[in-house]
Each structure stands twice: as C-alpha cells, then as structure tokens.
Amino acid sequence: MSYIDPFWTYMESHLEILDVALSPIICEINTASTPIDEHLYDRSEYLFGAGFVAIQKYMLETCHLNKISVKKAINLKVQDERQVPFETAVWAAANYWKHDAEWWNVGFSKTEKSTDDEKPLPPNILRNLKILSAFGDFGHDYLC
Question: pTM of this prediction?
C-alpha cells in the first residue's frame, strides 16, 4: 500500500518561496561589512522564522493525521553533535519566532538570571532558549 503525504507539498512549496526570498539576503549578509547595522539579520529572521513555523505546522499535521503524540515525535532520539533532537530544535525555533515579541524586554543574554526590576522568563521560554543556545551563532544571530 502506498501512502501519499498530503502535507509535504504544501510545506515544500512554502519553503521554496522562502528560499527564493532568502537567497539574496544571505548574499548581502556575506558581502556586507556590518550586516547587523544594515538590519540584514532582521530581514532574514522573518524568513527563517516563517520556515520554522511551516515545518512545525507540517510536523503537527503529520502527527495528528497519523495519530502520533506530538511530544513523542519532537523528542525522537535522532540527535546531532549538540545532543539535541532535530525535531526538538525546529519546534523550539518555531515557538521562539512566534512568541519572541512577548519577551523582548528580557532578551536572550539574560536567561541565566534576572535582576530585581526584570520579570523572570517563563519556563517554556527558558526551555526554548536553552535548546537554541546549543546552536551557537545561529541561535544568537539569526533568532535574536
């Protein structure tokens, strides 16, 4: 019995559109003397974030269609050299991008502790930031 994944083509076409939009920005980042001052990371962040959310939506739809627990699916044991399952990293990146405006006042660098005048980050945000911090420059430059 062959099975056709009804959601794959939606995600694939979405990512292809994002790739076309992202490619010239990546070229600009690679040639810019100060890409952060030119807001190139900000421009690319929206496209990366939309890509992570598209993948997250695909994962969610696939899990529901196949009656698979989302929690189990995003904690598969296939890991990269950072010991973070790929699915978990994608899920965390999508959640980060969707919700980062809710905690702009705290910021990525203040996840370890907060001062008296700052609100502590909620546990779900800390968990996502911990996952993303394992990805070094990508976590800091492209998602913050």
Answer: 0.68
